Amino acid sequence: MKITVLAENSVCKTNSLDVKAENGLSLFIEFDKRKILFDTGQSDLFIQNAEKMGIDLSQVDYLVISHGHFDHGGGLKHFLKINKKAKIFLHINAAHKFYTKIFGFIPYYVGLDQKIIVQNSRIYFI
Fold it and tell me: In this predicted model, which residue has the larger pLDDT, 114 or 65?
C-alpha cells in the first residue's frame, strides 16, 4: 500500500515540487492495483498537486469522502470534471447541511455542494 498526501494544512520546507497547502485533506492511496482518493480538500488544489507529482486522477477507481465538510469534499466538483469512472462513497450524514458561526453568531455554511450530491448517479451513500 502506498499513501500520497495531495493536500493538507501544511507543506514541508524542503518541498522541491512546489506543491501547495490548504485547510483540509486529500490522500491518494494505491492498494492491490486499485487507486483510491480519500477526500478532495476544499478546492482543485489536490488536482494541481497531483499533476506536479505525476499522479493521474482520471484513473482513480474510488473516491471516499470522509464527512460532509467543504474542506474534505469541496473539491468534488473538480474531481467530477477530470474523472468519469470512479464510484464515490459518502456517509449518508455527509449530505446534511452543516453550518458554523462566525463571531459566535453569524451562520456560515461549511457543508458540501448539495446540487452535486443530489444530481450525481455515481455517488453511493453508506
Answer: 65
